[in-house]
Amino acid sequence: MRDELDFDFFWADRGWMKEYFDQCFMEDYVRINHFRNHYELTRKNLIVKNLKRYRKIIDREMGKLEASRCDFFPTTFELPSEYHMFVDEFKRNPGSVWIMKPVARSQGKGIFLFRKLKEITDWKKSDYYRPREERADDKEPPETYIVSKYIERPYLIGGRKYDLRVYVLVCSYVPLKAWLYRCGFARFSNTRFSLDSIDDSYVHLTNVAVQKTAPDYDAEKGCKWSMQQIRQYFTARHGIEQVEEMFRRMNDIFIKSLQSVQKTMINDKHCFELYGYDILVDDVLKPWLIEVNASPSLTASSPEDYALKFGLLEDVLHIIDMENKLTGKEKRVGGFDLMWDDGPVMAEEGGVDCISPPSYSTNTFLGCNNDRKRQLRQLFKQLNNQRKT
Fold it and tell me: CA-CA distance, 300 to 310, in Å (whole number)?
C-alpha cells in the first residue's frame, strides 16, 4: 500500500478518491486532481440542490435582483424523492418537453425526453425505479434520476443543436481561486433539430459518445467547432456588445456555481480540480448550465482536439507549479486567465487580441486569442530575470 501511494502528483479517478484518499498521508508538496467531496458540484442532483439553496441565501441577503443572476439552470427535480413536486409543476406547464437523466451516469447513457406524464408513469413502474421493498429482487436500490424542463428553443447553427464545453481550474475553495481557459469547443448534433422527434438521441444529445454512433457520422469531419470559431460566429451575427454580455453571463455561471458549494466543499491544500462545464445557449443568447463534469474527457477526436487538450493539461501543470517557479501573483499562465481570487480579478488595461478590442472589466477571455506558447516564454523569462536580480 505504501508503494502504491508513493507519488508527488497523481491524476486520480473518482473511484480511487473514494477508496484511498482518506487513508493517505501526503507531504505538503503532493498534489492530486480532485477535492474529497468533488461530487457536490458534479453529481447532477447535488449541484441542483446546492444551487437552489444558494439562490435562497442570495435572495434573503441581497435581494431578488441579485438572486435572479442565479437563474441559469432549468427547473429540475430529483426522482423519486421529489416526484409529487414534479407532477405539480408538470401539470402547470401542459405540453412542455421534459428530459430525464440518471444522476450517476455519463456520455448520454439513460437519458430520454417525454411530453406526457403517462410516459414517465410507465417508466416509474419498472424495476429500476420502484421503491426497494416493492422490487422483484432486493439487490439494488432504485436508481436516482433528475428531471428537468427541456430547453425547447436552443440557438441553432446550421439547423443543429450544440453545447459548449468550457474548462475551469479551481486551485482552492478557501479562499476561492479559479482560472478560466481561453479555449474550449462546441459539440454539435449530427441531425437537424426538431421537437417532432423527441425520441431521436442524434437530434437532442450532443455527447460525442452518442454522435459518433450515428450512421452518417464523419469521423474526419467530426462535430466540433473551436470556442474561437463560436465567438467569431456570434460576433458576426449579433455584434460585440451582445456577445460580451453573453460571455459575462457565462462568467456568472462559473462563479455562482463554485460559490454555491464553497462552504460545502472540503478544502485541502493538496487538491485541485479541472472542471468541464457544459453550457447551452438559447435563441435569445441566454446561457444555461447543463452540468459540470469532474473528469472531462481528455481523449482527442482530431489533431485540433489533441492540441487543445495537450495545451490544457500542460497549462494545468504550470499553474499547479510543482517546482515553485511562480510568484502566486500571476493573472495569466498559458491559456488560463485568473478570474477569481477571493474576489473578482480585473483585466489589465489595454485589452487582449480578441475579435475586436473588448471592454471587459473582469479578467476573462473565453474564445479570444490563445497565444499560450508566446505568453509562457515571456512569463518564464520574466521570472528568471527576477530571480537573478
Answer: 9
CA–CA separation, 249 and 253 (whole Å): 6
Q: What is the pLDDT of residue 107?
A: 73
CA angle 101, 102, 106 (to 5 degrees): 90
CA dihedral 339, 343, 348, 351 (to 10 degrees): 50
Instruction: Give yes or no for a contact between 257 and 69, defined as CB atoms under 8 angstroms apart.
Output: no
Q: Where in the chain does DSSP place strands (E)?
A: 9-10, 31-32, 76-79, 98-102, 112-114, 145-149, 162-173, 176-188, 224-226, 273-281, 287-293, 332-333, 336-341
Which pLDDT value is given to residue 2? Answer: 45
d(CA 316, CA 137): 46
Q: What is the pLDDT of residue 355?
A: 44
Q: What is the grid cell recorded at 248?
A: 459575462
Residue 358 confidence (pLDDT): 47
Q: What is the pLDDT of residue 198?
A: 87
Whose grid coordinates read 450532443?
A: 206
d(CA 67, CA 61): 9
C-alpha cell at 140: 439494488
Largest CA distance in the chain: 75
Find where cell 491559456 sits. Answer: 335
- pLDDT score at 137: 54
C-alpha cell at 10: 497523481
Q: Give the Å distances, CA to CA, from 176 to 16, 345, 350.
A: 25, 12, 27
DSSP string, 10-36: E---HHHHHHHGGG----TT-EESS-T
Asked if residues 188 and 160 have their Cβ atoms less than 8 Å apart, the reply is yes
Q: How far apart are CA 22 and CA 257, in angstroms?
A: 26
Q: 274 with 169: CB under 8 angstroms?
A: yes
Report the distance separating Cα 60 and Cα 228, nearest Å: 39
Q: Which stretch of DSSP H or E encloses residue 250?
A: helix 240-262
Tell me the average confidence (pLDDT) per consecutive run of 10 residues in the chain, 389 residues long. 69 84 84 92 94 95 90 93 92 92 80 87 59 52 86 95 96 96 93 86 75 64 86 96 95 96 94 96 97 91 92 97 92 96 82 49 91 95 86
